[in-house]
Description:
2 helices, elongated, about 5% helix
Amino acid sequence: MKKPLLLLTALFATALSALAATVGDTYEKVMSTDDITVGDEYIMCYNAIAMGEYNGSKFYKPVADGITLSDNTATIANADVNTFTIENGTKDGSYAFKMLTGNYITCTRTTNGNLNSSSTLVDNANMSITVENGVATIIPTANSNNNKNKIQYNATSGQERFTNYKTGTQNNCSLYKKVVSSDNNVKAPVISCEDNMVTITAEDADAIYYTTDNTDPTVASTKYEEPFAITETTTVKAIAAKGDELSRVATFTAKYTGPYVSFAALFAEGANATGKVSGPIVAFYANASAKYLYVKDATGGFALLYGSEQTVTNGDTFAWVEGTVNVYRGVTQLSNYTLGEMTEGTPLEPTVYTLANLAEAPNYAYVKVENVTISNISGQDATLTQDGNTFALFNYFTDLTVPTDGKAYDITGVRTSRDGADKLQPISFELNNGDPSGITDIEAEETGVVEYFNLQGVRVAEPAAGLYLRRSGNRVEKVMIR
């Protein structure tokens, strides 16, 4: 009876050994989404901390110093590192992580800490992967929480783990692909970019060749001689050559950081892009409590700067603004910003729109609508009406009181949107001059000389256009002169 037991023990040990990472194996960092190949073997890491085994419930254990790093190459230093292949998911365009145990990594809920394991390929195993400059954004598509739920590493002391976080507030990881043994011993180049200058280095290479048109380089491509400038965000691909041998292709997204001529040009770089927009940048409204600053650039484009309490006067002009592109509630804005030198300038005047064409105004435009009534007030929301047309009002600045008297008003504000719905964000309300509200129950006789007075009671000899009190004999009435 001892022999079968020994045989079973040996088989079990062999199986465990086959499922463990091999110390000394090398993996190359995945630098872009294009580097992902279905069927290849990978590891997931945050710095030198690698993802280890499933804890049995809700997360995967970290393996501290599981790898040793040299540039973009990781070498397995601990057999507890969890290796997996990337497979096609159950939905088109999705991926799945299949561990060497045969199980798939799954995310079963949008709430934090629900990374699990399944013996079969299910929808909860589907992942979308976007890699930029070696940092992977991994979203469990079946429980994406509007693409905010991400597979990340929690580095908080006592809570170290790899799992999902519903708002993506922890640390994105890197994926490393296993290097298949070959006769090619030329290391791939390392590409970097600083201050819009691209640098490419290669260890012990005779030459480096690169492209900037997203095609794979060959020895017929441009030969790298010295750092070169970029004027827009650019995909740089490079190979190193030594004798007749060539390295694999290295890919890097070189981020252009400006200066940009407009907010539109910077926003086109997408979320998380950082850059400087050249002035003049004219401020027209700031709400310190909300940390909102509305500005206009030299091309006439508008933007919201968010995150800093500012006190400005309409017309204050800045030499430049630098910040990070952020998307909130479906609208692009600039956060973590810095302003250049300020000078006094000419105040901006709002552009007058009707409710019928207000939706055509640019986002964050400084606007004015006249002779509108306000109804259906509910919390921060209300409905504006003008000549049979309606438009949504959203009073984000709760320190501003929305009139509830049903009278006609001229409203100055910002045309914006929220979750895809057009809104007018008010800055001020002014009683419309054509509304006779406020002076009532004046009775007098109908005979006498006609005289005009302003609403403060001062006699006006030659009244211009506006609202006045008119006295004729003993009769007094309020009139609008146009």
